[in-house]
Amino acid sequence: MKRSEDPKYLSWFGNRRPVRLLLFTALLTLGIIHFTDLCNFITVLWRSASPLIAGAALAYVLNVIVDRFEAGWFPRTKKKWLITLRTPVCTLLAVLVILGVILLIVLAVIPGLVEAFTLLAREVPHYVADLKAWALEKTENFPTVHDTVANLVFDWDAIGDSLTKYAISGWSGIVSSTVSVIGAVTSGISNVFITLIFAIFMLVGRKQLARQANRMMNVALNENRLGKTKNVLNALNRSFSGFIVGQGAHSLLLGVLTTVMMWIFGFPYAVIVGVINGTTGMIPVIGGYIGAIVSAFLVFTAAPGQTLLFLILLIVLQSLLGNLVYPKLVGNSIGLPGLWVLSAVIVGSGLSGITGMLIGVPLAATAYELVRTWVAKREKEKAEEQPSGEITENV
User: Fold this and answer.
1) Distance in angstroms (rounded) separating the CA atoms of residues 321 and 325
2) Which candidate, 122, 121, 115, places its Cα nearest to that of 268?
3) For residues 73 and 89, what is the distance between their CA atoms, to the nearest angstrom?
4) Among residues 3, 76, 90, 225, which one has the fewest Cβ atoms lying within 10 Å of its Cβ?
5) Is pTM, for the whole model, over 0.90?
6) Which of 260, 264, 266, 281 is nearest to 326 (CA)?
7) Rg (Cα) of the chain, in Å, rounded?
């Protein structure tokens, strides 16, 4: 009998499970022995691949926008040149939309913040003087406190000199640090271009990439695992695309309504505050609080007496949008109850800051949908397994 026909040989080498177990054990042992080298390798690999990962994430976000543009790009046309231009033109429009939003934030918010800090520095001495006069008036019957307040003297020139020296020392530290990390800055700039270019290439070739990935899964996975994998991927896609569309629409509406409200009531920095609230509105749950704090600071620098009214109106507006519009735009898009949204935001922020907040909600929505589907399936199977207890008669 040939060795290849030996039942023992076939039972060992014909079955891949023992081979896989041995391979896994060997790799695990090597990983434990060279744990430090393995961590260093993973760190270098992650750092090298981070522009590609960021590009893939950007491509996915842009793909959601591209799909909306393609749906409106002459959907019933039969002209080949229009059909050929559909993907490149819609991709270019999506990139321009993202760049336009970034440019709007930079040009609208940063000058406003600089102006607000300048105005605040100019008005602080007047605020302090008014506060001191009010305190002296209210403490006339308390000589000790009155004398203490009266002896308070603020040398604004000395304070300004101290702040200037602190700023200069801080900037000198920044300059020295910049010189030492100029290579890292250059690398960071190149990574931005790599990310953008990789995202555009993925967008242009996304249909071919999808076909290739589908072919690979069909070959690598059996029918059962293939179905489960596609269910998970479809759930992830629905959750993330729904979150991006719903949260983006809610943020845009919040920014526009905030600007209109400020124009109606004559609040300062209407456009800047609208952009700030629209931008922070992309952060689930706590984004509204962040936008309100920054916006209240801006309004206070220009019109202190209007700050309280502004906060009241902004809270009312955010409450109306949060209770009436947000559940329709975002809640229905991801199908996640508010309790789990808050839990996902808290856990995500603890793990990875703002990035964790943004991806935590759609990931939680995906897990929620998969668990809900599994529970419904198991309930149906158990209901079919249990006897009905009824006796049917043949007629």
Assistant:
1) 5
2) 115
3) 9
4) 76
5) no
6) 281
7) 31
> What string of H, E and C letters represents the secondary structure of the chain?
CCHHHCHHHHHHHCCHHHHHHHHHHHHHHHHHHCHHHHHHHHHHHHHHHHHHHHHHHHHHHHHHHHHHHHHHCCCCCCCHHHHHHHHHHHHHHHHHHHHHHHHHHHHHHHHHHHHHHHHHHHHHHHHHHHHHHHHHHHCCCCHHHHHHHHCCCCCHHHHHHHHHHHHHHHHHHHHHHHHHCHHHHHHHHHHHHHHHHHHHHHHHCHHHHHHHHHHHHHHHCCHHHHHHHHHHHHHHHHHHHHHHHHHHHHHHHHHHHHHHHHHHHCCCCHHHHHHHHHHHCCCCCCHHHHHHHHHHHHHHHHCHHHHHHHHHHHHHHHHHHHHHHHHHHHHHHHCCCHHHHHHHHHHHHHHHHHHHHHHHHHHHHHHHHHHHHHHHHHHHHHHHHCCCCCCCCCC
For 149-172, what is each residue's pLDDT tens digit?
777 766 656 665 565 555 455 444
Q: Which of 355, 306, 326, 360 is nearest to 254 (CA)?
A: 326
12 neighbors 18 (Cβ within 8 angstroms) = yes
User: What Å distances lie between residue 178 and 181, 185, 212, 241, CA to CA?
Assistant: 5, 8, 44, 39
The residue type at 90: C
Work out the mean pLDDT of the chain and round it to a whole number: 76
Check whether 366 has a pLDDT greater than 50: yes
Share of the chain above pLDDT 90, in %: 3
Instruction: Provide the 10 A C-beta neighbour count for residue 194.
Output: 16
Higher pLDDT, 186 or 373: 373
- How crowded is residue 121: how many other Cβ atoms within 10 Å of its Cβ? 13
Residue 284, pLDDT above cutoff 60? yes
Amino acid letter, 64: V
Q: Determine phi and psi for 244, rounding to 5 degrees.
A: -65, -45
Q: 287-312: per-residue pLDDT in tens?
A: 888 888 888 888 887 788 888 999 99
* pLDDT level of residue 376 (50, 70, 90 thresholds): confident
